[in-house]
Amino acid sequence: MRCPFCGNEETQVKDSRPTEDKSAIRRRRLCTGCGARFTTFERVQLRALTIKKRNGRRVPFDRDKLERSILIALRKRPVAPERIDRLVNGMVRQLESMGDSEIEAETVGKLVMEGLESIDQVAYVRFASVYKNFREAKDFEEFLDSMSGDIENETKDKADDEAKDD
Fold it and tell me: What is the DSSP letter of 97?
């Protein structure tokens, strides 16, 4: 493993243990060249995924980019880091188990939207504003109105279900 500080390729593993959710191995390393310590993570990759962008370009799937996008949407929100890790790991597993090695960028975007909607409404709106390319305040209004309509419909459906049970 190459040292991120000096570029030396000689490093030693000083500690190795699974992450809390057991989805990766965390390794503490020591560079024999400069003495710096750093951490690496080793994860299982079921298949190499390629993302097909809207413009037709194909790029390798980058788990870190997915995680960064989610972290940006969740910035300063009260969501535990473990919950974010579980969300990202679950999305990666879903993408890998789709059976196709080439995935539309839109599919990834929809997955992120669903995941964020389930854990934090503010992050959901933040991500949607970029993903759906909001240009003005009216775009936010319309999106929030559609969210309110969804919530009202869910509440009405629950009330109808409860009335049927009585």
Answer: T
Distance between CA 18 and CA 24 in Å, rounded? 6
Write down the pTM of the prediction: 0.63
Residue 84 contacts residue 75 (beta carbons within 8 Å):
no
User: What is the gyration radius of the CA atoms in the chain, in angstroms?
Assistant: 21
Beta carbons within 10 angstroms of residue 139's beta carbon: 14
Q: Which domain holds residue 122?
A: 46-137
Number of compact structural domains in the chain: 2
Q: Is residue 59 domain-shared with residue 22, that is, in the same domain?
A: no
Q: pLDDT tens for residues 38-72?
A: 999 887 766 689 999 989 999 999 999 999 999 99
Evaluate whether 51 touches 61 at the Cβ level (below 8 Å): yes
The answer on 129 and 74 residing in a single domain is yes
Q: Are 31 and 2 in contact (CB under 8 A)?
A: no
Do residues 71 and 127 both lie within one domain? yes
How does the average pLDDT of the chain come out, rounded?
A: 85
Which SS3 state, helix, strand or coil, does residue 23 take? coil
Q: How many C-beta neighbours within 10 Å does residue 132 have?
A: 13
Are 60 and 112 within one domain? yes
Burial class (CB in 10 A: 0-12, 13-18, 19+), 9: exposed
Q: Are residues 50 and 3 in the same domain?
A: no
